[in-house]
Amino acid sequence: MCPGRESNPHGRFWPRDFKSLVSTISPPRLVRAGLPASAIRRKVRKKTYLCGTKDMIKAIFFDMGGVLLPLFPDRCIKAYQEIAGFQDVDKYLDPCHHHGFFMDVEAGTIDTDTFIAECIRHCAPGTTRETILRCHDHFFGTPAPDDVALVKELSRDYDIFLLSNNNGLSMMLHEPNFERAGLPLDKSFKKMFLSHEMKLLKPNPEIYRRAIEESGYNADEILFIDDSQKNVDGGNSAGIHSILYHPGKDSLRTLVTDALQQLNG
């Protein structure tokens, strides 16, 4: 432990002369008001690190598919071809950037019902909505337990957001999937920035601008993790600290932890 420090229940360390520290990083009125140390600590806990340094990063944007959610495009293509008879589905489906009407539904230019109808038009006679849902579900795995634990741990000190190219059909499948994994979407993220709702796709600069604005943070206070180099480049161009995740090769925990340590000094 550093000299002149005491531990606290949140795993941080605070100088014993806490008022002196707060006066250097918070409005002087907090000290002059005579607030108890516990109240002052709550106000600055997310901004204060070991030896009294400040957090640079205040919020984290996670991509969903390919980062928090494993993707299996080959398995999905096989299901569409063998179960539904959608033989040229590989022209449309891609783990990072879809094409054709698969892209349109993520851009929000067509709705879920239109997407399903277009899928059925490409499929064998007798294909139903339920068949499309079944085939589409083959695209997704289950969030890894350590990644679920990581998000929960990070949420103690950072606001956690999703920034995802997504669509209504996939979200219907994701909600119970994440719930079963112990990471309910409606409770685990401060906000979900979803392409089909925003009618913008990564790496369009506008989706980053709006996500930054609606998050309430400055761009340089945000860490963004994505599995597409194009999307990472788009984030960096917007001023966000953006890093590339390689599914199946990188440890998400190690990647995020190392980035936070480097950025927060």
Task: Describe the protein in words.
This protein is of the alpha/beta class and 265 residues long. The protein folds into three domains: 5-52, no CATH class; 59-70 and 142-264, Rossmann fold (3-Layer(aba) Sandwich), CATH 3.40.50; 73-137, Putative phosphatase, domain 2 (DNA polymerase, domain 1, Orthogonal Bundle). It is built from 14 helices and seven strands. The chain has helices at 18-25, 28-32, 37-44, 73-84, 100-107, 112-122, 129-137, 145-154, 168-181, 185-188, 195-198, 205-215, 229-237, 252-264, and strands spanning 5-7, 13-15, 59-62, 159-164, 191-194, 222-226, 241-244. The strands form two sheets. A five-stranded parallel sheet has the order 5-4-3-6-7, sandwiched between helices. Helix 13 links the parallel strand 6 and strand 7 (241-244). The longest helix is centred in the middle third of the chain and has 14 residues, at 168-181. It starts with a strand and ends with a helix. Mean pLDDT is 86; it is low at 1-53.
Could you provide a short overview of the structure?
The chain has helices at residues 18-25, 28-32, 37-44, 73-84, 100-107, 112-122, 129-137, 145-154, 168-181, 185-188, 195-198, 205-215, 229-237, 252-264, and strands at 5-7, 13-15, 59-62, 159-164, 191-194, 222-226, 241-244. It is of the alpha/beta class. The chain folds into 3 domains: 5-52, no CATH class; 59-70 and 142-264, Rossmann fold (3-Layer(aba) Sandwich), CATH 3.40.50.1000; 73-137, Orthogonal Bundle (DNA polymerase, domain 1), CATH 1.10.150.
